[in-house]
Amino acid sequence: MIHFVLLISRQGKVRLTKWYSPYSQKERTKVIRELSGTILSRGPKLCNFVEWRGYKVVYKRYASLYFCMCIDQDDNELEVLEIIHHFVEILDRYFGSVCELDLIFNFHKAYYILDEILIAGELQESSKKTVARLIAAQDSLVEQAKEQAGTISNMIAQATK
Amino acid sequence: MARDLAPEVERLLQFRDPNIRKKAALCSIRIVKKVPDLAENFINPAASLLKEKHHGVLLTGIQLCTDLCNISAEALEYFRKKCTDGLVKVLKDVANSPYAPEYDVSGIADPFLHIKLLKLLRVLGQGDADASDSMNDILAQVATKTESNKNAGNAILYECVSTIMTIEENGGLRVLAVNILGRFLSSRDNNIRYVALNMLMKAIALDSQAVQRHRATILECVKDSDASIRKRALELVYLLVNESNVKSLTKELIDYLEISDPEFKGDLTAKICSIVEKFSPEKIWYIDQMLKVLPKAGNYVKDEVWHALIVVITNASDLHGYIVRSLYRELQTAGEQETLVRVAVWCIGEYGEMLVGNAGMLNQEDPITVTESDAVDVIETAIKCHSLDLATRAMCLMALLKLSSRFPSCSQRINDTIIHYKESLVLELQQRAIEFNYIIEKHQNIRSALVERMPVLDEATYSGRRAGSVPAAVSTSQGAPLNLPNGVAKPTAAPLVDLLDLSSDEVSAPSSSGGDFLHDLFGVDLPPASSQPGGNHAQKSGTDVLLDLLSIGTPLAQSTSMADMLSSGDENKSPADILDKLGSPSGPPSQASPPVGSSSMMDLLDGFGPVSSVPENNGPTYPSLVAFESSSLRVTFNFSKQPGNPQTTYVEAQFVNKSPNAYSNFVFQAAVPKFLQLHLDPASSNTLPASGNGSITQKLRLKNSQHGKKSLVMRIRIGYKINDKDVLEEGQVNNFPRDL
Hints:
- The complex is a heterodimer.
- Chain A is 52% helix and 23% strand.
- By secondary structure, chain A is α+β, with helices and mostly antiparallel strands.
- Chain A has a 5-stranded antiparallel sheet, with helices on both faces. A two-stranded antiparallel sheet of chain A has the order 6-7.
- The termini of chain A are far apart.
- Chain B is elongated and about 120 Å long.
- By secondary structure, chain B is α+β, with helices and mostly antiparallel strands.
- In chain B, 57% of the residues lie in helices and 9% in strands.
- Classes of the chains: A alpha+beta, B alpha+beta.
- At the A-B interface, β3, α2, β7 and α5 of A face α2, α4, α6, α8 and α10 of B.
């Protein structure tokens, strides 16, 4: 099971966190600090797995972002590397050549995509097409809601409430 | 909440929309983990999910089944019987499926599904021969056909190997698996190697022969630049060691020790030491290896390890000469490694004459001429070296004392060195220097008996005790006797009293866990500060204890008696000199202020409570009592107790001089059995005017842990100087009021 997902920039800024195990707020900051230190200081040629506090942390660097996932001792690390790649590919497909800025400005969408891929620390969909379709459906819903909110009748309804 | 929502989720497992179904499946996993009882409800719906076509639902369904099997044995049985074949078929389909762009990852169709299926098959096949049989074909197919130039393929292979290793015995498949691992090991990708090392650790349990074949590669991995790989490889090497390969492996590891990173050195040293200890074929090899490790990484060697080394050394009596000479050589080159210096200094002290006389030469040794002054030089260099800590320098002083007896010609020079340390600012060194100087100067006759060879340490009791030792509870003051902190040591009375219970106790008390071995060396049972297990000893030999307490009761004895013990197996020699010291005010300067000295001494005897001021007058009053009376002195005790605290008694002692001469340097000492705690405040003065023209008062606090069961009893000793003559008076106070 994946315990948490962390996206850190090269400078140590946290771009995205998702927790699948109970961690208190204080613990979270502690974990982030520790892991940032460990992972950012690793050399380029070293292997992508770090043993940390009895768990394994799998990380992969894409451009300026480090994608980290923490798993149990008996999980398959190579599989998790694939999951990370799966996630990145979907992001890429959605944003079209994704870069860190996209994630900064559209973090809500990034979270939504992550939720379509992982639930409760497990992979839920291995097909990129399906995920893309689902996200597109969600986007259209959002568009609809925005339009509705903009119509005259709605505005009148709001004003007279 | 999980219970409330479970039926809803169950229903949703059969919803028409596959997206809902897959999310419901993962949700069920969470519910089942939280509330294992609900697992039965989910078995049937989960089984139906396994027949899905939609990959997403299939994935999540498989995950649900895996978790159900892990949680509930019933589910495991069910799935094993009903679903194994179906799963094998699904895996076959996926493995053989043609190119499907939707699920393709680097040429393999849906590797995630592959991996999940393999995981479930692993759980189902573990421990069950039938299920394992049905899987053999597909496992073989996956293992051989999957491409391994991409990560996805490797992930599948890794999972496959893991499954093969876990399910029931099948020779052919196992060979296949180990071959794949071998291939992984020699791959250049760090990730793959890491994963292979991980897998090999599990494989060792099943087929260590196969893993031994890869020993060389694994050794290479220990030297890798990647920290994670190094760690894994070292652990694997540790598991690989057996009697036949221990020598070559250790050699490699020790060679690497020299060039390894500091962070890694600690781990590596610990592993080397434990390998050497467990598998050493003969003593001399063990000692050799330790002699190689100590100069390279002495600072990382833990205390138990070098203590064990010393135990082995004392037992290997024919090798003493060889050992001390090798240590001498090493010390010349690597004088900053703490542990090396300690062991070397100890050995030189013990076996100095063998070093100089070249006794017990072994065939492979080169002759080496060491004069007595060379040996002394070496120790003096060590003691002057400021990077070494207190314990080491204390050990050096001890060794110098031993050498002064073994090398009479250097005795004067050693004495000069020791005199230099009498002014040391470090209390421990100062104490030792003063004691040893005294021994050298005034007690030539007993010196050689004092520093005789140590008795051979019993390995069996040592290893037994080490296995049973409790790491946590012992307070730091009860670490190695040589690690006593600077300044007045703060252990409780118990150690000192127990020390003296030596005379009546058995030497080995295997039930006494905890505490450092070197304490146990002397049969000293050092309990953790809180408990007082030796209480019964005090009862059976009450007066003896008190007597011993007073005769050896000095703070110097507290720490240095340990050190003396180190050199003499017989502590009874020390009382003579220490008693003399007590009596002669013209002795060492540390006795300059007797009242303060006595109260601090007493504090050491009875343990530190906070120095509280005695309350003026509280609680029920008790009649005062004449504790001691002689022709020249009277001691009166006045008691008070605080209400609500019946165990503590405040005593004000009053001393009156009955003789026509004034007393100076007046010192009052008291000792109590173990169930009492005594605290002495400083006396009002140390001069007692003649004929009762004035008196000295001193406040004591007694705490009776056996209040009500035992009454107070105390042994007192009073020393003073009259007309430049020292007088000592002793007595026992038995007539305390019963209810105190």
